[in-house]
Amino acid sequence: MSSINVLMNNLEKLKLFKIKENINSYLDMMADGVKTPMDAFSEMIQMEVNHKEDLAIVSCVKIANFPFQRGIQDFDFSFQPSLDKNKVMDLASLRFLEKTENI
Question: 14 and 48 in contact (C-beta within 8 Å)?
Fold first, then answer.
């Protein structure tokens, strides 16, 4: 069995589906010198982490049994005209956390 087959089987066993899905393109990029192995591994691992986080969020929402999902972009500011849309959107960006400011 070739090493690529062993790698693919191990990625499947470890449930690293995003890495398995993208490994060939990253191997090509490393062979062409477009990506260093460190950059490629870092990007693939970050891609897998993001995928697992997305799955966890979907799972939590499903378990919570919400009747529907809404985001800040779905809020009807015309229904509550006393709210300053710009201020709410600024708070939603969480910029104040990066600046370590109180709201």
Answer: no
